[in-house]
Structure formats: C-alpha cells, structure tokens
C-alpha cells in the first residue's frame, strides 16, 4: 500500500501492535484537523483485517477491502453545518454490526470519524459497547476535539496522539505529487503541516486564494482594535456578527495556553470557525514577512 505522509512513529506503533496481536479494544485518535488521522485509521483497519496483518493487498480480506468489506464499518456525522451529528440510530446500527460474528476473518473494526459529534443519547448507547469489550472487535474514535467527548468515553480508549507534519516532510511529499518545487513550498506553508488541507488546496485554486486572503487580512489587523477586526473578518463570514466575533475571540485567545480556556468555549469557537485550536500561528505569522 502507498506510504502515508507524517506521524511515522504512530504508524509504526500501530502496525507493530497488529503484527504482535496486541490490539487494544478501543482507540482514540486525537490531534489537529486534516493531518491524516482518518487515513491512518483506515490503513490500521485494513491491517487488522488482513490475513497476514500487513495490508498485503493480495489476501481475500484485502481484495474485499477494495470494495465493501463486511467486517468494517465507517461512521461519519450526518446532516448539515453545525447540526451535523452522529445520532443514536447510527450508534445502534454500529452496535448491531459489532454484535454479529465476523464474516471474513476473526475481527470486526468500527471507525467513528468526528466522534466529538456523538449526541448525548448516542454517547450513552455507545458507552454500553465500550463497556463490553470483546477480542473480536476493535473500535477507533477519530477526533480533533477530544475534550468534547465524555471522560467516561475517553477513559475507556487508548489515546493515540497525532502531530502536525514537519515542513520538510510536507515539501518532500508534495514534490512527489508532481508539482513544481515553488508550489510545493507555498502549499506546505499554507497548509501548516496538514496533508489533508494541502491536498484540498491543491485541487481547489479558489480555496487557495481564500486562504491567502484570510492570512493577509489576519496579518493586517493583528494590532487593530476589536471593532476593526470584527469589520475586517465580517467579509469572510455568512453569519457576520457571530462568526466574526468568534474569529476575534479565537485570534485573541490563540496566544494563550489553550488549557486555560473552558473546554466548551473553545470547542464551540473551533466549530464555528471550522478550525482546530492547535492551529499553529507561527507558520501563519511567517507569511507576514
Ligand atoms: Zn491482506
């Protein structure tokens, strides 16, 4: 299978646990948005289900993996915008999936993306699954906002922390996508260590322009009053007041230690802005010069 950029230490640790058959019952993949958590969760699942534990691409499980694998379930939030969530019906379906015996091999794997969007009712239903571990099942929760999950959920999972991808790795990887080295450098800076974002920007020149415009604006208003910031950022928002205010809060709070902020405040701001609170400011500021 093709190489996944970044978080090599995490990948090696996970692959080692599959090969050594030392899997935990449930994992919590946490770290900034768009850095490859979901990609690695899928690669992890393929290895868990593979007959030779290394995603060989040849065994019957790997052949099924290319289509719909009967022992793999991937859940994402449903709905639109801020209303997107993972409801109790989705969790019930997942519980049902896990209760049935594996069809192809010895295990079943469930991956829940944006697990912070589980509703209260869904979380309660899901807790029952976490409380009944079975060697037949492996669960992976993926989130950029682990503090939005109940402590009782977090404590039942083995947390795996992911990091932003270093610039040198990003540039090397982007260069392998057959783009010019200048573009690779620019995309690496704009994406701030997030391969997913770099890929998105690569495919979407309009988004790329927006990101550059926002970064320029950010650098222009950094020393201005809140009112000026509000005015400036309103340009980029649909619900002008709420979103712009949130963005200012984010800008002002970003220089503090994020652990000082009430978790829900920060989660809400992050969601409104569709940014993650680990967003690095240094790469952004380096664009000022
Ligand atoms: Zn295989």
TrEMBL record:
PROSITE patterns: DEAD_ATP_HELICASE. It comes from the Bacteria. InterPro entries: AAA+_ATPase, DNA_pol_HolB, DNA_Rep/Repair_Clamp_Loader, P-loop_NTPase, RNA-helicase_DEAD-box_CS. Residues 23-168 form the AAA+ ATPase domain. GO terms for molecular function: 3'-5' exonuclease activity; DNA-directed DNA polymerase activity. Coiled coil: none annotated. One of its GO terms (biological process) is DNA-templated DNA replication. NCBIfam families: holB. This is DNA polymerase III subunit delta. It comes from Candidatus Terrybacteria bacterium RIFCSPHIGHO2_01_FULL_48_17.
């Amino acid at each position: 299978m093709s190489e996944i950029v970044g978080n090599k230490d995490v990948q090696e640790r996970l692959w080692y646990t599959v090969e050594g058959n030392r899997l935990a019952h449930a994992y919590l993949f946490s770290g900034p948005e768009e850095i490859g958590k979901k990609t690695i969760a899928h690669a992890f699942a393929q290895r868990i289900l593979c007959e030779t534990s290394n995603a060989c691409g040849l065994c019957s499980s790997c052949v099924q993996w290319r289509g719909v694998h009967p022992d793999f379930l991937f859940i994402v939030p449903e709905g639109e915008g801020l209303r997107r969530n993972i409801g109790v019906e989705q969790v019930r379906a997942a519980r049902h999936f896990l209760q049935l015996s594996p069809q192809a091999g010895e295990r079943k794997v469930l991956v829940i993306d944006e697990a912070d969007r589980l509703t209260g009712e869904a979380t309660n239903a899901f807790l029952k699954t976490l409380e009944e571990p079975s060697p037949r099942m492996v669960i992976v929760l993926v989130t950029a906002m682990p503090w939005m999950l109940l402590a009782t959920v977090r404590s039942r999972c083995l947390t795996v922390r992911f990091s932003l991808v270093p610039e040198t790795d990003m540039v090397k990887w982007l260069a392998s996508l057959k783009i010019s080295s200048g573009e690779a450098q620019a995309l690496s800076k704009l994406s701030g260590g997030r391969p997913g974002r770099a890929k998105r920007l690569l495919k979407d020149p309009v988004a790329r322009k927006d990101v550059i415009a926002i970064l320029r604006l950010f650098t222009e208003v950094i020393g201005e009053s809140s009112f000026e910031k509000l005015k400036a950022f309103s340009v980029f928002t649909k619900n002008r007041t709420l979103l712009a205010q949130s963005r200012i809060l984010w800008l002002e709070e970003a220089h503090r230690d994020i652990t000082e902020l009430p978790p829900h405040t920060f989660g809400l701001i992050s969601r409104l802005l569709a940014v993650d609170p680990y967003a690095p400011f240094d790469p952004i500021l380096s664009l000022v010069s």
